[in-house]
Amino acid sequence: MSDPVRAQEVKANRESKLAKLQVLVAKQHHYLQEHPRANTQRAVQKLVARAEKLRIADWVELTGAERTLTLTVQEDAQTAAAKLDGCDVLKTDLTSAQAPKELVHDRYKELASVESAFRTCKTGHLEVRPIFLRLAERTRAHAFVVMLAYQIIQYLASCWNPFDCTVEAGLHALTTLCLVEVAPKNAPSYHCIPTPRAFMAQLAFPVHWRNFAHSTELRGEVCPHSSKAS
């Protein structure tokens, strides 16, 4: 896997580290010129240690001669180090027969969905905490109900994905959908759902919910009156 954006970030980070080392070399060189008793080799050792800490010692060379410090970039080594920029290495203890590289890659990419699910259940829309339970069975039952609720969220997300609407926004919009009781003078009263606006109709009556109105209606036909819900 190679991410061009990440590759650019790694390249910029490498260049930034090199710039920091160059500044330090200039400072050490200036110090050696102003202090005749300063040790050149100790300055070189300090710079090499700094390069190792910055993890660029593999492609830079630091030398000191006649109280002059020199930093040389080894182009071949730097190019070799840049070959893996933006690449992620996935390691598994499974054999290729058990899980080919494509399967390992797909499962790794699915971890983002797993993290999103935990975030939704713990601190997001469902908020499993706080748990005011002590018995293990009741705690597991509470977590199980939250998992069932997450399944509903997943289903709503799949239904509303074509409308570019999040589950939170969709549920908030549906709170304006109401059931109206109609009470004629000379006829029995009945309930109906006012005809919603276009966006509300898309959310409330997708293909999977064509029987929504019939299951909610208690008696009579759905009223064609416009609703104030938006």
Q: Pick out the low-confidence regions.
A: 207-230
H/E element order: HHEEHHHHHEEHH
Rg over CA atoms, rounded to whole Å, is: 33 Å
Helix proportion range: 40-55%
Overall geometry comes to elongated
> What kind of sheet is the major sheet?
2 strands, antiparallel
Strand order of the largest sheet: 1-2
Strand content: 5-15%
Textual characterization of the structure:
This protein is mostly helical and 230 residues long. It has three domains: 4-84; 101-162; 176-216, no CATH class. 51% of the residues lie in helices and 8% in strands. It contains nine helices and four strands; from the N terminus they run H-H-E-E-H-H-H-H-H-E-E-H-H. It has helices spanning 4-34, 40-53, 75-81, 101-109, 111-122, 136-160, 167-174, 198-204, 212-216, and strands at 60-65, 68-73, 180-182, 190-192. The strands form two sheets. A two-stranded antiparallel ribbon has the order 1-2. Strand 3 (180-182) and strand 4 form a beta hairpin. The longest helix has 31 residues, at 4-34. The radius of gyration is 33 Å and the shape is elongated. The chain starts with a helix and ends in a 14-residue tail after the last helix.
Summarize the structure.
The chain is mostly helical and 230 residues long. It has three domains: 4-84; 101-162; 176-216, no CATH class. It has helices at 4-34, 40-53, 75-81, 101-109, 111-122, 136-160, 167-174, 198-204, 212-216; strands at residues 60-65, 68-73, 180-182, 190-192.
